[in-house]
Amino acid sequence: MVNAVVWMRNVLRVHDNPLLHWASNSDEVDSVIPIFVLGSSRGMGAESRESDNRIRFLYDSITDLDKKLRDEYGSRLVVLQGEPGRVIPLLAREIASEGDWLVCDYLQDPVSRREVASVRESVAEFGVETRAFPSVTTVLDIESVVGDEAYREPKSSSDIDAILRRSLGEGPDGCLVPEPLGRPADLKPDTSAFDSLSESDSLSGLLVSKDEIAEGASVLGVGEPYFPGGESEALERLKRKVSEMPDFVRRFSKPSTMSTNDPDNPMEPSTTGLSPYLSTGCLSVRTVWHECLQANLSSDHTKPPQSLIGQLMFREMFYLLSRSVENWDDDVGNSNCRPIEWGEYDEDLVSAWESGMTGFPYIDAMMRQLEATGWMHHLGRHAVSCFLTRGQLWQNWKHGRDVFERKLVDSDWALNNGNWLWLAGVAPFSMPYYRVYNPCPDSKSSLNVEAKEAEFVRHWVPELASFPSRYIFEPHLAPIEVQESAGCVVGRDYPHPIVDRKESRRVNLELFKESLSRIA
DNA sequence: GGATCCGTTGTAGCT
DNA sequence: AAGCTACAACGGATC
Q1: Ramachandran angles phi, psi of A51, nearest 5°
Q2: pLDDT (tens digit, 9 = 90+) per residue, A413-439?
Q3: Which nucleotide's C1' sits nearest to the alpha carbon of A256?
Q4: Is the pLDDT of residue A446 over 70?
Q5: Which secondary-structure segment (H or E) carries A110?
Q6: Labelling A60: which of A83, A176, A225, A514 has CA 20 to 30 A away?
Q7: How far in angstroms lies nucleotide B6's C1' from the CA of residue A471?
Q8: Could you report the per-residue pLDDT of A137-190, keeping only the tens digit for each?
Q9: Strand C: which bases are under 7 Å from protein Cβ?
């Protein structure tokens, strides 16, 4: 009787799941025990400061997965609470024997790599061999690409395109992404193993029941979350936003507006909204990739880097860089971060930014949306991160990175750090630092502001609900009679701008230039 | 080996 | 109103 303990870290799904697929198909494996560890790097570890939105998303995803395993496979998800290096050996002692397997998904970030190394060592004492499957979170096998002698760090869309083609082969329309795996046929449930786990003394207090998870989720906010967690939601959304929208996929280009034109759903984002599901592994990136290819088959379509597949390519690029660049998440000792002399940490500035009280309605609306929903539009992320760093507040990008990491439901170590490096203008792959976003967009801005954006501000900054569109992005410029009749006097009901946007932009450009000249 | 070009996604002012 | 231009001006790749 050979057991395979399937430790799902960032793969909270049944579709295209190489771990379950292998355990299901392997003749060597007699029984499969799927587990999740709350307290791991992917499940609210000890240092976790994650927001309620993120925890709720995770709980919902676990619940959905457990339900699928029960209803469709007669199996279940064993949820353990604690450090993986401690609780997995306890579980192994209870049920494992010589020749058993621990399988998990490979993750590239340092904490997850350390975590699996320590678990591998400790379960080896029980004769259990650990196998980490590559290409679960990403299309590429990160470790093998980065370990290749020919590997050079990608810095542009053509670099990552070349790496993908070399690594996966040439396809008719770019690289050849492997087909997603089908659902496993049989997950070889072993009821007696599940029973012995729940009766075990050494695991008592470490096992988390589905009722406890459900209860935990129910106290985190009332009503429907903006993005409900789970594979079922993920596949439903993929169908709704990609598979059934081939024209949207074919025409996808850099987003220029935040919302769709759907009058019934003014808050529905103009992008796919699939990122929360990708970041937790509720959705397989290969599955998304192939759905996009499918949509592109029927006629002409946009191409990388601007297409949806282009977005996925940059995702692969940041995963590679996050593995090969030392100190990827730091501003010192990071070869991809030029040393810019940011201002002293200013708690007033950073907390005004974080809480949406900067006096810049567009910025504030987005920061409040982030707080409330755990999500912010792509364009909003550009605007607020530029604002905090090289644009207006001249604060170190790491302060903003921390806020995003904690609050975003789609937060992802590789991508979050990569995007902040890019937007702060410090990375070799970033946009030129002197391209500063206007935090008060007008009709000529690249943000292509329309009436919808004014509605967006009114929704998230209710103080300005009655403000006329003409002044809504810079309410302090409205004549006092206008402010009074809109019921919002700047300085009384809504803050004055915390900085002069033009002056701060001018000064910051000079400071950035100065820092650069010091390096050279 | 210096000049030139390019880089996923700018802004503001003028006509 | 859309389109042009000036602004500001980096670093790496390429020829």
Answers
A1: -75, 165
A2: 999 999 999 999 999 888 889 999 999
A3: B9
A4: no
A5: helix A110-124
A6: A83
A7: 38
A8: 999 999 999 999 889 999 888 899 999 999 999 987 889 999 999 999 999 999
A9: 3, 8-13
Name the nt closest to A425 by C-alpha to C1': C10
Q: Is the C-beta atom of A417 closer than 7 angstroms to strand B? A: no
> What residues have CB less than 8 Å from A203, skipping those under 6 apart?
A80, A87, A90, A91, A94, A197
User: CA nearest A285: which of A295, A294, A275?
Assistant: A275
Contact status, residue A267 vs residue A452, Cβ threshold 8 Å: no
**Which nucleotide minimizes the distance between its C1' and the CA of A307?**
B8
User: What's the confidence (pLDDT) of residue A407?
Assistant: 95
CB hemisphere CA count around A219 (13 angstroms) = 5
List pLDDT tens digits, range A242-287: 999 999 999 988 776 766 555 566 567 888 999 999 999 999 999 9
Residue A358, amino acid: T
Instruction: Single out the residue of A95, A88, A80, A92 nearest to residue A37, CA to CA.
Output: A80
Average pLDDT over residues A355-384: 94
How does pLDDT run across A81-117, given as a tens digit for each residue? 999 999 999 999 999 889 999 999 999 999 999 999 9
User: In chain A, helix, strand, coil percent, each to 5?
Assistant: 50, 5, 45
Distance CA A358 to C1' B1 in A: 50
Please report, rounded to whole angstroms, the spatial distance between the CA atom of protein residue A294 and the C1' atom of nucleotide B7.
Answer: 30
CA/C1' separation A134–B9 (Å):
31
A355 pLDDT above the threshold of 70: yes
By percentage, how much of chain A surpasses pLDDT 70?
95
Give the dihedral sign, CA A151/A156/A160/A161.
Answer: negative
Residue–nucleotide distance: A444 CA to C4 C1' (Å): 13
CA A257 / C1′ C3 distance in Å: 21
Instruction: Measure the CA angle with vertex A127, ends A126 and A128; round to 5°.
Output: 90
Q: Among chain A residues 270 through 329, which have CB within 7 angstroms of nucleic chain B?
A: 305-306, 310-311, 314
**Residues linked to residue A103 through DSSP beta bridges, in sequence order:** A6, A131
A508 contact to strand B (CB, 7 A limit): no
C-alpha A376/C-alpha A397 separation (Å) is 17
Q: Straight-line distance from CA A428 to C1' C12, in Å?
A: 8
